[in-house]
Amino acid sequence: MVKVGVLGLQGAVREHIRSIEASGAEGVVVKKVEQLSELDGLILPGGESTTMRRLIDRYGFMEPLREFGGQGKPMFGTCAGLIMLAKDIVGYDEPHIGLMDITVERNSFGRQKESFEADLAVKGAADCYTAVFIRAPHIVSVGENTEVLAEYEGRIVAARDRHYLGCSFHPELTDDHRLTEYFVHMAEQAKLAHV
Ligand code: GLN
To answer: Which atom of ligand 1 is nearest to the CA of 51?
Structure first.
């Protein structure tokens, strides 16, 4: 069984653990840098990206997170976590963790649509998937090796760049665990490749 962590500094942590366990992996709430070494994959949850960034800096997570990705270990950013992973953020000079070859824009869906659900096709994971969006970012553009996995109203809302997976919505908030399963599978594949 693979171990998948959820960065537990801020945001929707417990729900991700529940989804990881429903997907047949062990879920670990990560609050200390030392815990990263035992993991096969890491989820960066939704929440608030500027607050998450502050806590990442305060607890010394920035370099260890970059090293984690640099070792080829899968990372999955959801909503604010997607913003943390992106190499470029519209309107910002610097990214946060900055590992995934995408450009994101924060709070893309307008005030009247602060939160909503939409049925999407997610390539490789689900033909019809109910996605929950909460003050969601979207992916403005992707690098040449990044695959678009889902779009909503012409905007990219899920993508994969090598061992980095990201989505605008909250896959942990429904009982449909297919996207988490997709990520657990990435962690299993990466573990096999590294043994
Ligand atoms: N709007 C938030 C941000 O920019 C993300 C919202 C979420 O994670 N649900 O950080």
So the answer is: 10
